[in-house]
Design brief:
alpha/beta; two-stranded antiparallel ribbon; about 45% helix; about 190 residues; 8 strands; about 20% strand
C-alpha cells in the first residue's frame, strides 16, 4: 500500500556531522517506520534495506539516475503513497524541528503533508510549517507523497535524539498517525463525492 523512500545511501551519504551520516539514520528511522505502519495494517516497501543507492554504473549523472529509479520503483509497486525520509542541516545550529515538504503535482500531497505536520507540531517541539518543494523526485512523482525532514543533524540536541531508538519510535508514530488521518480524510472526501 505504501512505500518508504529511505533517502540517500551507497556513495551518497546525505548530510553529515563527523562520522554520523544522514543515510544511516534515514535507514534506521525508515525501518522503525516500516514496522509501525505494518502494525497498523499497511503493506510497506522500503526503497533500500541496506547501504546502497539505485544508480547504475551506466548513469552519467549518478544522483539523477538514483532519483529516476526511485520514481520507477514507486510506480512499479503501485504504491498508494510514499514517504521520503530525510534529515535537515543548516549552518546555524539553533535551527531545529521536523518539517514536511510537498509538491503540488498531486493535490493529495498537501493533505498528506498537513496531516503529518499537524502531528509533528502536536507531539514534538517543532514550530516549523509545511512548505513546498520543486526538487526532481517530488515534481516528477504523481503518486501522493511527501518529503519528511525528521530533524536537524546540525542541531546538537536533535542529533542526539535522532540517534536514539526511543526518539526514532516517536518520529515513526507521529508519521504513522499523520498517514492514518490522511487516509481518513481521503476516504471522507471520496464518500462525499
Amino acid at each position: 500500500m505504501g512505500k518508504t523512500d529511505t533517502s540517500h545511501g551507497g556513495r551518497d551519504p546525505g548530510t553529515r556531522y563527523q562520522n554520523i551520516l544522514e543515510k544511516d539514520l534515514n535507514l534506521e528511522i525508515s525501518k522503525v517506520l516500516r514496522n509501525t505502519l505494518i502494525e497498523q495494517g499497511a503493506i510497506v516497501y522500503l526503497i533500500r534495506n541496506e547501504d546502497e543507492d539505485l544508480s547504475s554504473k551506466w548513469d552519467s549523472g549518478k544522483k539523477r539516475g538514483d532519483l529516476y529509479r526511485r520514481i520507477l520503483f514507486i510506480q512499479k509497486v503501485k504504491s498508494d503513497l510514499y514517504l521520503s525520509i530525510h534529515l535537515n542541516w543548516y549552518n546555524n545550529a539553533y535551527h531545529q524541528g521536523a518539517e514536511v515538504l510537498y509538491n503540488a503535482i498531486n493535490p493529495k500531497n498537501k493533505i498528506l503533508g498537513e496531516k503529518i505536520m499537524e502531528n509533528f507540531r502536536k507531539d514534538t517541539y517543532t514550530k516549523r510549517k509545511l512548505i513546498t518543494t520543486d526538487l526532481y523526485l517530488y515534481r516528477n512523482t504523481r503518486v501522493p507523497g511527501v518529503l519528511i525532514e525528521c530533524g536537524f543533524l546540525s542541531n546538537p540536541n536533535e542529533r542526539y535524539l535522532l540517534q536514539t531508538e526511543k526518539y526514532q519510535k516517536k518520529v515513526a508514530k507521529v508519521i504513522t498517525n499523520g498517514v492514518i488521518e490522511y487516509i481518513k480524510e481521503i476516504k471522507k472526501d471520496t464518500e462525499v463525492s
